[in-house]
Write a structure and sequence with these properties.
- This protein is an alpha/beta fold.
- It has 2 domains: about 5-170, Rossmann fold, CATH 3.40.50; about 175-225 and about 240-360 and about 380-480, 2-Layer Sandwich (Dihydrodipicolinate Reductase, domain 2).
- Helix content is about 35%, strand content about 20%.
- The protein contains 15 helices and 18 strands.
- It has helices spanning about 5-25, 55-65, 80-90, 100-105, 120-130, 145-160, 175-185, 220-225, 250, 255-265, 360-370, 380-400, 405-410, 415-430, 460-465, and strands at about 45-50, 70-75, 95-100, 115, 135-140, 165, 190-200, 275-280, 295-300, 305-310, 320-330, 330-335, 340-345, 350-355, 400-405, 440-445, 445-450, 455.
- Helix 7 runs parallel beside helix 10 (about 255-265) and helix 10 (about 255-265) packs across helix 12 (about 380-400).
- The longest helix is centred in the first third of the chain and has 21 residues, at about 5-25.
- It is globular, with a radius of gyration of 23 Å.
- The termini are close together.
- The relative contact order is 0.14.
């Protein structure tokens, strides 16, 4: 445990021991009101970890709230961090502190809120450290880099009594909330299938040679829990998404939003019975490791969730390029954006529209004020379950092997919806001049899931991928250490 966490643990233990004298032995006590604004004239002290990409949105969230003040910006790339600090100073009228090491933020007791917009492989550890240091957390999606990390964040949030919001902002959009309510209330009859689509064009990242780490970048801090590898631009800003050591491909990048909506609409509260995935990185050869085409099939017994990632040029599916489709016995619902969609009858006639936005960061601040994680639209448990489904799909794919197209078709089974996805996959490849007799399908095994323990049944290779080897001192704690 880092020094800051040990100090915080001792402080909280002393508080709990004292409180127990008056509240009764065994009652869980958390200093929840510590460092909270006491009046409308006071502000939450906000630290933003990761200031590039999505971090710019976090800066905008905090600047847009009258009860927030950005007191820290943290980024291992000081070139980006200093630019953001200058911008915040200009807009806020007060300069934030800039640091490269997030542990300096956690050492400061005056910080109330930490938002995390780092690379995926840092999300869990940053969130855990922040909550152990007494901060409330807004952590970007996916909340974890592997399945076990997500469960550890949930456990720490509950143990420490912290509020932890997941960055799946669709959960706060009125249009989507109304659509999900419509689906779950029987608006399209019985629903047993949901599809998520991430049809998002991705060009090749090409090849990049190893080079010296850019001046101003603390590469050790950037790598954090990940193994040390030589620096290249294709494993750095943004392109880290397509490297397994740091990212989770587009299933865990854009796709996590639509995976979350699909799980939400189907009312799924566990990881299902099995998962099978297939695809590949088609159409070009580059430094990317993750698939640009992936179909992930999740069996929940009486329900099924199918997710489709396409990075090459493609037409939408029923109007959903990046969205969701819920198939009911009396119609279907198509979500075509973060807050828009419509319901249709079985003949394709529109029967209802859904639209309207929301304030996800505002919802987080409301829950910080109430001290009730139940007030969150995207509590960390919801974020963990949806992120874990993405990890399960990636795990099946990574354990797969290249097979002939006809063999792959036989391996996925005879279910009509599954075969429909596969045929559209084949058509998609043909439309992009990909010859599957040359570039074979990478077919993953069917992995049986021990849903009670969030693990795999009788598959050591898959079980090993539920976690990773962490580079000290950047170690996500085990369940017994939380």
């Amino acid at each position: 445990m880092p020094d800051f966490s040990r100090r915080r643990f001792l402080e909280q233990s002393m508080f709990a021991a004292t409180a127990a004298l008056t509240t009764g032995a065994g009652q869980h006590v958390v200093a929840a009101e510590e460092a909270r604004p006491a009046s409308p004239n006071e502000k939450y002290s906000v630290a933003i970890i990761g200031t590039n990409g999505r971090g710019r949105s976090h800066i905008g969230f905090a600047l847009g709230k009258s009860n927030c003040e950005i007191t820290y910006l943290c980024d291992p790339d000081s070139n980006v961090g200093h630019r953001r600090a200058e911008s915040v100073t200009e807009k806020q009228g007060k300069a934030p502190k800039f640091v490269q090491d997030m542990r300096r933020v956690f050492d400061d007791k005056s910080v109330d809120i930490v938002t995390i917009a780092t690379q995926n492989h840092w999300h869990a550890l940053a969130a855990i450290w922040a909550m152990q240091a007494g901060k409330d957390v807004y952590v970007e999606k996916p909340v974890s880099h592997n399945v076990s990390e997500g469960r550890r964040i949930v456990q720490v949030a509950r143990k420490e009594g912290r509020v932890c919001q997941t960055g799946t902002q669709i959960r706060s959009m009125r249009g989507t909330q109304e659509a999900i309510q419509f689906v779950q209330s029987g608006g399209i009859g019985e629903v047993k299938l949901a599809r998520g689509t991430c049809y998002k064009r991705r060009n090749s990242i090409g090849h990049a040679s190893e080079r010296d780490v850019p001046k101003g970048v603390d590469y050790n801090l950037w790598l954090g829990p990940a193994p040390v590898r030589p620096f290249t631009k294709n494993r750095f800003h943004y392109n880290w998404h397509w490297n397994w050591a740091y990212g989770n491909g587009d299933l865990g990048n854009q796709g996590i939003h639509q995976m979350d909506v699909a799980r939400w609409g189907l009312g799924l509260e566990d990881l299902g019975q099995s998962v099978t995935a297939y695809g590949g990185r088609f159409g070009y050869k580059d430094d990317g490791e993750t698939p640009n085409t992936l179909v992930s099939m999740h069996d929940f017994g009486d329900k099924m969730l199918i997710f489709e990632v396409r990075g090459l040029k493609t037409d939408s599916l029923r109007g959903a390029n990046v969205g969701n489709i819920f198939y009911g016995s009396e119609g279907y619902v198509v979500m075509t954006g973060y807050s828009t969609g419509a319901a249709f009858d079985l003949d394709g006639n529109m029967t209802k529209k859904f639209e309207g936005g929301g304030d996800h960061f505002g919802n987080f601040l409301d829950a910080v004020g109430s001290r009730k994680h139940e007030d969150l639209n995207a509590d960390i448990l919801k974020g963990h379950l949806s992120s874990a489904l993405c990890h399960l799909g990636n795990t099946s794919f990574r354990l797969g092997k290249e097979v002939q197209t006809d063999a792959a078709a036989e391996m996925i089974g005879t279910d009509g919806e599954v075969q429909d996805s596969f045929q559209r996959f084949r058509d998609h490849m043909a439309n992009n001049s990909v010859d599957l007799s040359v570039d074979h399908v990478h077919m993953g095994p069917k992995l049986l899931i021990d849903t009670a323990n969030e693990g795999f049944i009788d598959n050591g290779e898959a079980s090993a991928m539920l976690t990773r080897d962490y580079r000290k001192p950047f170690v996500v704690p085990s369940e017994s250490e939380v």
